[in-house]
Structures are given as structure tokens and as C-alpha cells.
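**Protein of interest**
===
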Amino acid sequence: MKKKVTVIATMDEKKPLKQSNRLIESRYKLTMYEQRLIIAICSQLNENAEEFGKVRIKVSEIANFCNFEPEKAYSLVKKTIKKLASRTLEIKLEDGNWYVTHWLQSAKYINGESIIEYKIDDELKPELLQLKSGFLRAQTKPLMEFRRDYSARLYFLLKKMLKIKDFDYSLDFFRDRFQLSKSYEISANLKNKVIDPAVKEINEKSDINVKHEYIKEGRTYTKIHFTITLKKEPNKEEQIETETGHLRLNESIYDSDGSVADKLVKRGVTPQKAKSMAKKYSEKQINENINYALKFKDSKENLAGFIISCIENNIVENNRKAKEEIDKKEKEQLADDRQAKEFFHGKTEDFSGDYEKPVIMKDGKIISM
């Protein structure tokens, strides 16, 4: 019997990820890139399906969804999905039993087509499909802004407790679930390198507010008390304030006029520097690089400085040229591959191989069969 494959033409950014609480509390270790990729993959599932199927998607499409840096998107996707296929996780069941499985049952990169094909491990069906209770549904696109390895993990663990609002987690819980090394047995390391940076990023970029306090038992810190609330939707003025790191313009120094210089000032650039850049660079170059900086800024970086650097080096245009060069090489490679196959076999193999005609999906809807 021929195997079926689904081709995702466009990632649905509005589709939430639905996962069991058991999966959220499972033991595993993933890098930031691996976390983003598995979140993206699982978010596109048909949550009412009975089985996982093989899926194909363009590398550029999933890289864009995952906010991978454009200049190294192709290599990142190939490297990350290969590593993800070898990663395991341990899930504890309600009866005290547990099982170990992989995230992916298979993963493949199709050379020349810039396509990846994958299938989620069948053992994860109870954690991702047909969930009726004990699950969390969360929007995934904002999570792609996280730049710390443990931010998404902590976000899921906190968000599932939203109805309770006030609760404790032991430090040993995080050490165990995140599979941290021995160095994190020192509470200060866990605090400064894992929990505090993740909480900071969650507060800045997610839909929840988190307050936390470390609790001592005797002379040793043993647990963290968390208080979480859902954020209200920011209005336009609040959004600008958030983007500028709570910067408020001094109207006596700078008169807001809605120009590109004004946009720079609102994001922390000095008025003098903003006016100079507005004269030197095109409005398109400034706007494109502001958007790029807001999307890819590291939490440690100064926003104004990063924006200035992006504009002066025209990062967006350079990335665009780099992508065009990669696409050109991919097309040349594809042409060479087809020519070689025709030379040896007399014809080029059909893209679908042993598969039935793909089901084409766009924004979560079937558009062709």
C-alpha cells in the first residue's frame, strides 16, 4: 500500500499548539532552535486526527515561521531536524509508570528541492492527538521570539497553572525536567542562568505576567513561589512603550512628527542621530531594518544600538541577496541532479516517488488533492 504524505504549503501562524500536561512535564533537553522547530511542527497537526502522517514542507517556510536567522536558515533547519530526530523524552504516566520515546520517528532532507520530510513518533499520539482533558492550548508564534533555551519550557509549565495563579515548583523539579548538569545543583547557577532569564523573557514577550520568589528551608533555597496573571491587550501607546523598553519621549527635546526619524527616536535613537540617518538612508532601508531589529534583537542587546547597526549595514538587503544566492545554487543543484538522472536512467524521477499525490494545505485548509 502506498504511503500518504501531506505537503504544507504555508504555515498557519494562528493555529495553536495543543499538548498534554504530561508532555509539558516530561523530562527532556532541547536547544532553543530544537524547541522552536518541534513547537512549529506540532502546532500544524490536525488535533482530531487518529494517526500521525508524513509531512513535507519547504525549508524556507518553516525557517521563517521559526524566526531562524535568514543568513543561516537552511543550514539551521537541516542541522536542527537531524539533531531533533535523535532526541528522546521521558513521560511519566498517572499510574506512576513512565515511557521513553523520540520526538520524531523519521526525518529527511530532500536535496535539490530544499524540502524536509518528517513524521512525529507514534508513541506521542496520546500527548498530541484527540485530547479531551489535561491539556494546554497556546499560541505558538510569540514563542518564536524566545532566545533562551528554557523560556518556552518554563512558559508552558507556568501557563498550564494559570487558573491556580499562585503555586510552587521545587528547584529539583526544574533540575530533573530540564535535565540540567551537575553545575546547576548550585542554586545560584539555576537562578541566574535558567530561571531568572527565562522569567524576564516571558514577561517581555508572552501573554502572561510572572512574579517569582525563592523560598528557603533552613539555610537552603528549595523552591520557587510563582504568581501569574494574564496580560491585557496593549493599546497603541503601550505597544510603542514596550518596544522602546519603556522609553518616554521628552517633547521639549524632540517634536514627534511621524517621520522615519521619529520612528528611530521612539526606539531609543538620539534625535541628532535619527535626523542624520534619515538624511543618509532611504525610508525603505530604515523601515525594513527597524522591523528586522525588533524581530531578531537578543534580550542582552541595546535596541537602539542594534537598530543603528542594522540600518548602517543594511542587514535586510544583505540577507535578501544571500537568500537569492542560496536559491540560485539550489536551482542549479536541482538542474544538475535532474540532468544526471536523465543521463543514467533516461528520465527524471517523479518528485512524489512512491507516494500518492500529495494533499496540499494552506493556512490549515486542504486546497488540492
User: Anything to note?
Assistant: The CA atoms of residues 185 and 282 lie 52 Å apart.
